[in-house]
Amino acid sequence: MSDANPGAPSIGQVSLIALFVTALVTAQLTATKILAFDIPFSVPVAGETLILPGAALAYAVTFLASDCYAELYGRRAAQVVVNVAFAMNFVVLALVWSTILAPASPAGIDAGTFETALGASTNVVLGSLLAYIVSQNWDVLVFHRLREYTDGDALWLRNVASTASSQAIDTVIFVSVAFFLAPELLGVGTALEPPVILSLMVGQYLLKLGIAVLDTPVVYAVVAAVRDREGDRAVPA
After folding, report:
1. How many CB atoms lie within 10 A of CB 68?
2. Full residue range of the structural domain in which residue 157 is found
3. CATH number at residue 134
4. Is residue 33 part of a domain?
5. What does pTM read for this prediction?
6. Is 3 contained in some domain?
7. How does pLDDT run across 138-155, given as a tens digit for each residue?
């Protein structure tokens, strides 16, 4: 079944864009918290505890949404979503900081606590924005190169391969800039020691890679459901 008005955005398009943007905004607001997951075995560098930025969980969802969108609506449409969402990051930052700087009532939450919770530091913002624009565009590029190479077959391959490579790029850029390069070069925050940096990279990447593998059935389900509903509005398989 297709939508009655061919000129209107489809439910699939709106839903995937909404999921992408929601996850992206959540990632921006949760990036400063450092998570620690104990695992029942030891991995190189990270050991038995995976340490990663809080944004990793929400940010992994953006790749699921962008891969579904790219498969259904094509490379050009996916790149538009990725790059427009990049601009929206600045809107989020402007809104958050305008709220932080606005006069606070004593009846509400402590202003300092509010700023600490939501006011991402300069190093985290720089790392997040740079990692996002590079990794998401790479994800779309690799996804469609693999789609062309396999003649539209093996969705699992392009989902896992594009996400695995783009998540590696994202992890290295974000952790390096946010927790080492920016503090060292700009004097914002405190630079972490190299062993901690490596541990953050390994922990973040392993979690993202695991999500990329596990979300493959979800990608298949979403793509099949949208194609069944929208018919020829989506890119053919």
Report:
1. 26
2. 11-233
3. 1.10.1760
4. yes
5. 0.83
6. no
7. 999 999 999 999 988 889
